[in-house]
Amino acid sequence: MMKHKKTAAALFAALTACTVFRAIPAEAFKIEVNPDNYDLDERCVNIVAAKESRFDPRYTEFRLDSYDVELWNLKEGIQDIELTLYYPEILRIELNAKGEPAIKGDILADSDASFVLDEENRALKVSVHSEQPIREDGILFSVIFAVSANAKMGDKYPVKTEVQKLSGASGDIAYNIADGYIEIGGYHDDMRFDKGDMNFTRSVGVDDVQQLLKEYVTTLSGRASALAEDHRKIADIDEDGNVDIIDVQLLLKYYTEQTALKDITWEEILGKQPQYPSVHISNESYDLQRQSEKESAE
Predict the structure, then answer these.
(1) N or C: where does the chain have the smaller number of CB atoms within 10 Å of the terminal CB?
(2) Contacts of 268 (CB under 8 A, 6+ apart)
(3) What are 22-64's pLDDT values in tens digits?
């Protein structure tokens, strides 16, 4: 079954049997579609990639478990498929546990399939042959993408499909392509980080204490703060409007006691209910932190 079940069901209901085009190359019947929605054609096979896939922005390297390429409206029956998936430089395809660049989908269980990764040209070449006509819709194959830490929140990266061959027992079959894309930062509503989580890792560790100390030393020397306003709220542990040595001491105490006791709370550390137990961080502040980490590593 397709992973886009809810979206696909309503759209697929409008499809009827393909109009049969024969003795003309399939490319002649390729229909360009709007990449921002699923434009399906009831006359032919529809090759549909994941319309919209998002990476969690909370990690240094974003990863998508599965990017699917699906085939819909296969009533005519297909036996041979050759296509190429092109992806931009900021993406890369990771090998699966078998050392392969792609995973067979549910409609390839009894078919011969080969996947060749051409990293130089940013392409994955797919070839499929089935002795019996494939008539059941579903996932053709899936790939695992990783995205560079240089990617910015809100960026979209298109993934394009080109077909070299699509045929059945009676010859070439018409097709339609609905391409997908990768979007960075789909979890905007989840961009809240707890007090003291200076590096946005969902936990408080020694690195957070060191970064807070660095911020204190920076401002103590008269230099401008390196943190955005929302980031400083996370650093202002005692919520007095300043980032100073008291905040460093409180964060160190919290980290130390949390390591020993596991269940220590900020209310216990501060002796009061914190006004800002967590803070919503903007895309700009998040990107600034990641850029700072990258520069420090270099």
Answers:
(1) C
(2) none
(3) 323 333 333 333 444 556 777 889 998 876 555 555 454 555 6
pLDDT tens for residues 188-244?
445 788 999 999 888 899 999 999 999 999 988 888 888 999 999 999 999 999 999
Specify the number of domains making up the chain. 2
- Which of 235, 61, 213 is closest to 149 using CA atoms? 61
As a whole number, mean pLDDT of residues 140-145 equals: 89
| CA atoms within 13 Å, Cβ hemisphere of 129 | 3
Whole-number Å distance between alpha carbons of 239 and 241: 6
User: What pLDDT score does 39 carry?
Assistant: 64
* Residue 280 and residue 244 in one domain: yes
**Which run of H or E residues covers position 286?**
helix 283-297
Residue 70: pLDDT above 60? yes
Whole-model pTM? 0.54
What sign has the CA pseudo-torsion 99, 101, 105, 111?
Answer: negative
CA pair distance 14, 248, nearest whole angstrom: 62
Q: Could you tell me if 135 and 225 lie in one domain? A: no
Residue range of the domain that includes 250: 191-297
Statement to judge: residues 81 and 160 lie in one domain: yes
CATH code of the domain covering residue 214: 1.10.1330.10
Q: Assess whether 204 and 135 both reside in one domain.
A: no
CATH for 87: 2.60.40.680
Quick count: other Cβ atoms within 10 Å of Cβ 296? 9
How many residues comprise the chain?
Answer: 298
